[in-house]
Amino acid sequence: MVSLFSGAGGLDLGLELAGLDATEGKEYTNNILKSKNLYFENRTKSIFHISYSNDNFKEANETYAEMFSDDVVKNDKDIRKIAHFPECQIMAGGFPCPGFSAAGPRLIDDPRNFLYVHYIRALLETQPAFFVGENVKGLLTLAKGEVFKQLLEDFSSAGYEVKAFLVNSRDYGVPQLRERVILIGTNIKKVKEKYDWEYKLPEPTNGDNLLTNPYVTLKDAIGDLPENPDDVFEGSFSSMYMSRNRKKKWNEQSFTIQASGRQAPLWPGGEPMIKVGKDKWKFQGDKNRRLSVKEISRIQTFPDWFKFTGGETAKSKNGYLDKKYKQIGNAVPVELSRKVMYPIAKFFVDHPEMTE
Predict the structure, then answer these.
(1) Which single residue of 29, 94, 156, 352 has CA 20 to 30 Å from 244?
(2) 8 by DSSP, 3-state: which?
(3) What distance in Å separates the CA atoms of residue 314 and residue 225, rounded to the nearest whole number?
(4) Residues of the domain holding 12
(5) CA 117, CA 90: separation in Å to the nearest integer?
(6) Which of 172, 100, 162 is nearest to 133 (CA)?
(7) What does the angle CA 168 – CA 30 – CA 176 come to, to the nearest 5 degrees?
(8) What are the pLDDT tens digits along the chain (356 aa)?
């Protein structure tokens, strides 16, 4: 497996877990995931083995190097300057999306929006059996859908049947309201023509109507953590931040975790925010802090042993912590990746000749 735009590795860890689920079973995976040492000793049993990853986010690369196997080649070049990509059987990556996001200015001509063409360049060169992409919901509606239409055509032209799914992370065991577009590409010559195989999105594993497996709540995810942690981004709250509710209840799922400490949702304890005017809310009581790094890591379903670096160059505590918030907020929730990638892992287990 080759990972592009890898960040700290949420998508990649989820893929590894899906590969372990397919070879060893989900109960086995859940047991070893509780311990870093146990997981590191057993991760090679996964059908997915990451050989190469690329990103130019320094602190995310440092995190990735510590949290994944030593034999992963870690490339920190700008993807536009990479001349050749290694061969692989699956390629994964959440390409940058600043101009697609509803959280910021939707600039169709932002050059970062077109970094995905280098993902396609890698596909054309290596022709893996599958590729996996992830992006924000706003990708679907930018320029009235024309950008998304062109993107699908571009990926298809590399020789793939491309399917796109809008998923909400909370439907797959993530305690967060996070809608994302998942792209699954199946190589036509290597898979479709030989096996007549079609990717099908797994049914939701969590929901209010699933009495034995309801949505995971904030209480489930972070209720055991200390009320006053020291890894919290501090400082004033902007008028934009105070323009809407930022606090969920303990029995709900978090707002989307963004790649910014300043924009982190509020801890669910204390009294709720109240609306006092158009686009204007205010706090009640004195328990109104942002979610901590540890809390948003849990909400993004990283295991507790997965540690993020803030780098050594930050000039302030907030600057140091913000590097961590950015890595975690940019990541694909681990459990979402694990669930939606399982069908591909099962395909490789069922067709061992594909891995020879």
Answers:
(1) 94
(2) coil
(3) 26
(4) 2-208+332-355
(5) 17
(6) 162
(7) 20
(8) 999 999 999 999 999 999 999 999 999 999 999 999 999 999 999 999 999 999 999 999 999 999 998 899 999 999 999 999 999 999 999 887 644 544 444 444 555 557 888 999 999 999 999 999 999 888 888 778 888 898 899 999 999 999 999 999 999 999 999 999 999 999 999 999 999 899 999 999 999 876 779 999 999 999 999 999 999 999 999 999 999 999 999 999 999 999 999 999 999 999 999 999 999 999 999 999 999 999 999 999 999 999 999 877 677 999 999 999 999 999 999 999 999 999 999 999 999 998 87
Reading the block at residue 195, the tokens are 């096996």
Q: In CATH, what number is assigned to the domain containing residue 344? A: 3.40.50.150
Which residues pair with residue 254 across a beta bridge?
A: 176
Q: Are strands 274-277 and 280-282 parallel, antiparallel or unpaired?
A: antiparallel
CA angle 151, 176, 13 (to 5 degrees): 65
For residues 236 and 348, give the distance between their C-alpha atoms in angstroms, rounded to a whole number: 50
CA dist 280 and 171 (Å) reads: 31
Q: What is d(CA 303, CA 109) in angstroms, rounded to the nearest whole number?
A: 37
Residue 284 lies in a domain: no
269 found inside a domain = no
Residue labelled with tokens 């320029």:
143
Look at residues 231, 205, 138, 237 and name the one whose alpha carbon lies nearest to residue 178.
138
Say if residues 1 and 88 touch (Cβ distance below 8 Å). yes
Residue owning tokens 């890894």: 231
Total count of domains within the chain: 1
Within a domain: 301: no
Residue 55 in domain: yes
> Active-site residues: which are they?
97
Beta strands in 202-262 (DSSP E): none
Closest to 43 (Cα-Cα) out of 85, 63, 71:
71
Distance CA 354, CA 128 (A): 11
Q: Compute the distance between CA of residue 69 and CA of residue 73 in angstroms, rounded to an integer.
A: 9
